[in-house]
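Researcher: Next sequence.
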Amino acid sequence: MTLDLLTALIGFAFVTSITPGPNNLMLMASGANFGFRRTLPHMLGVGLGFTLMVVLVGVGLVGLFDAFPQSYTVLKVISVVYLLWLAWKIATAAAPKEGGTDGTPITFLQAALFQWVNPKAWAMALSAVTVYAPDQSLTAILLVACVFGAVNLPSVSSWTVMGQQMQRVLTNPRRLHIFNTAMALALITSLIPML
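Model: Next structure:
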């Protein structure tokens, strides 16, 4: 890969990782509700889960979808239903009790598995592999995955920090409920491009 192409890949990884999408909105809500430390497994699940997704898409998983075109529709339906369920969970989340032990943030495994029903993750992985590893050599695929792994985690962490900083404003249950409802609506809005 040339230096110009690598620079473009890093830019693509940054822009797609830092912009709003289901992962980032859920991380911001989790940061606001649970803080940075309790959201850490969620962040790691997003970063590592997506990196693995890029590798698996690159080594041929996309061929499975091409062989069975109806699987795209099934994936869309599952994605929409799951994201609507997550939006409902965010909107109806209760304020954590004093001491921060009430409620449970998304786990590492849940966040890693979420990548497979996240429409933005699919668009990012397919675009990255198609544009930056067109020969689909293992070296190119691993390079794309490593770049995303290096760029994605700090990017998604910034959303958790934003949410954590919002805890100062979200000091009463009413404000937290309004914030959670807004995050749920933003998550639902993120489905519009897919639909």
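Model: The CA atoms of residues 70 and 76 lie 10 Å apart. The helical segments are 3-18, 22-67, 70-91, 108-114, 119-132, 138-166, 173-189.
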